[in-house]
Amino acid sequence: MNKTTLFTSILSTTILFISSLTSCDGIIERNNEPLDAAYANFEEINEKYHSDIFEVKLFCETEVTRSSSPNPIRIFPSVNDQLIVSCDAEKNDETQGDMLYYKINSKGITEDTLHLSQNKYWPEFIDDFIIFTNDEKAYYTTWPQDGDTTTHAFKVLNEDLSWTGEKINQKIASAKKDGKYWFLKNVTRNDHYYMQFFFYQDEQWQMLWQEIPAYRSIDSSEDAGRYRDDVFWTGEQDPYLPENVTFLHFHPEEKLKYSHNIGGGSPGYSVKNWRGKAFFKTKIGDRDFNFFEPHIAVEKERFDDYKNRFYTVLEANYSALHFRPTFYISPHGFAFYSSNSQSMYLIRKK
Q1: What is the torsion angle, in degrees rounded to the nearest 10, for the CA atoms of residue 260, residue 266, residue 267 and residue 271?
Q2: Residue 48 sits in which domain range?
Q3: Which residue, of 2, 13, 22, 94, is most buried by count of CB atoms within 10 Å of its CB?
Q4: Helix, strand, coil % (nearest 5) of the chain?
Q5: Residue 339: what pLDDT?
Q6: 128-146 pLDDT per residue, tens
Q7: Does the pTM of the predicted model rise above 0.90?
């Protein structure tokens, strides 16, 4: 074998060896260009985030998967300029339905926590009150207002179903006109149908029983949920950025193949694309908050006017996951952040 043949053989073997390594990890091509220096100080959002301006802390986590509870962590405004965070506390069959609530003041500090088991009563948050109801009874506490978990009974009307229809209608009309809150719940017992009319009038919570001829669904304008306005929830499935986040830069690192699973009986499809670091900013208070996310693929197509869509690609030949960096930004200068269903971070100025 002459030197030329030997060199060619070695070169071919080397190329085949390198190709085999590339195919093993699924990487088609690598980018050796350095990151633009303008983004060198951006950091990933976690408890290692270092900043002279902001501190980042893991606020809460849940073990509940997105398949069983798509949005297990939520935020809603409460009284006294407070926020309440609800977090699904299920860990096993015995704690199924349990919830953990955090009361957050205007400085982003947790003032109180409350663990509720939902195996007997369903809680509804209505301003100063938590209302607990089931098919038989109801009670309330004033925990949102003052942290008190003492239970208070409802005044029950027409429990023996002796009221005339006219008397019932007059009471309902009066409560809707003069009462501060009211809502309905339906109850079925032994093929008989009842409507529970809950209302707050004359500084007292009351509940009126009414038998009805047939089952009637409760409209959203009649249920207690209308008094609670969720302003943030984890687990949003959307590849587009929210309005309060700006995309700044994408640094490609490796080209690979991954897939999109559409679901609903539709077949998925594969994509060859670059994966790398995506750089973003938002504004918390009067300061920019910069961050990056690794393992991101960015796609743009004609069908949505070439808007950026963001996906997390953990490994080659894996399914892509929607990436949506979601912030609740308080007017008081702190924020909550999540990009998945199971965890949420608190970001505050130092």
Answers
A1: -30
A2: 27-54+237-327
A3: 22
A4: 15, 45, 40
A5: 97
A6: 999 999 998 999 999 999 9
A7: no
